[in-house]
Amino acid sequence: MRSALFLFFPLVIFIVLDILAFQTFKALDLGKLFGRVYWAIHGLGYAYILFAIFQFDPNASPEALRRGMQGFMIYAIALYVPKLFPISAGLLEDLFRGGTWVTGHGWASRRKFVATLGWGLAAIPFLGILHGVFRGRFKYRVLTNRVTIPGLPKAFHGFRIVQISDIHSGSFSDPDEVRRGVDMVVAQRGDAVVFTGDLVNNVAEEMTPWIGLFKEIQAPHGVYSILGNHDYGDYWQWPSEQAKVDNLAALCGQHAALGWDLLRNEHRLIQKDGEQLELLGIENWGKPPFPQYGDLNKALAGLPPETPKILLSHDPSHYDAQVVHHPANIALTLSGHTHGMQFGIEIPGWFKWSPVKFKYAKWAGSYPESNQSRALYVNRGFGYLAFPGRVGIWPEVTVHELHPA
Fold this sequence. Notes:
With 405 residues, the chain is an alpha/beta fold. The chain has two domains: 2-134, no CATH class; 140-404, Purple Acid Phosphatase, chain A, domain 2 (4-Layer Sandwich). It is 37% helix and 17% strand. It has ten helices and 14 strands. The chain has helices spanning 8-27, 32-55, 62-80, 84-96, 108-134, 175-187, 211-214, 241-258, 296-300, 317-323, and strands at residues 141-149, 160-164, 192-195, 223-225, 261-262, 266-272, 275-281, 309-312, 330-335, 345-347, 351-353, 365-368, 375-378, 396-404. The chain has a six-stranded mixed beta sheet. A six-stranded mixed beta sheet has the order 6-7-8-9-13-12. A hairpin with a 2-residue loop joins strand 6 (266-272) and strand 7 (275-281). The protein starts with 7 loop residues before the first helix and ends with a strand.
């Protein structure tokens, strides 16, 4: 019960937002019946939240918690994000007229126009959110990133690395939809494949039903993976510390079952035609509150500093904190983690925006340094977390093509 008390806070926020939105809803002058319908619908929503509060079981199965969380997120985002438009319109109109929301002095018609405009605009994000839930979360796309690496060995000119990130298998429910993404990865026929962390949401068993499907991802020069912040079980209530340790061991075993070479603060030498490409992989390193298990210097141990290297590091904040000025020649860093917040606007080659930019300056796509000596690429993620949808920021499979300077 105590674990669910945090739901009372959003309930209070929802009621306040509904009261504010109702002020503009009344201005539409639809009659008392529609007003009663408005509150009847929202009353059912309040009952749903109260039911969730009193029935909440933190020890429920991951599948039950997934269904509950996803249902709540759809309700909260689909109903309340669009309402910000009529609420804002009403408050601005109220402010313009000196703080009064009353009929008279010739303001009634303009009040109705403002309310109609606000609710009309609300329809746009509402429909976008519904699209994101039913289509957008599986609207996989392939993006190509041409990478210039000074000193790249000749055998690796044109070498293609396929990157996926943030699978979050605990969020999936439809195998056919997930297969579309896996087939897209396989179809790229990469020379190597890398996975940059967050295989699960919380517990290793979330991945068990999906091993057979993701095992189809193979490459002639190997599939390499790292851990993300969600893979350690830090956000789950474990009965003992040993249970948490056992869970991480099981998850690492799943990487092996997939045929993926898990790098934990270590490196691999990819061999081709008598030359080699140095690939590093570190454990999660993020700015607080995210854990800092990664050890870049340990992964670099035994490698000459001047040869070009590719680094797998889940959290892009690690790049500016430790990588960009590191004396070793880390030419390319591949990250994920942000998901692009699963919400934003992108016009390829021209414009991209997401609220996540206020947390991460580098949150999606390529970020080369001005001297072209090294670069960061942030993958938008394969899966989704909490909210079962993507609006404007689609799931991504990236093909990195390596070329000499």
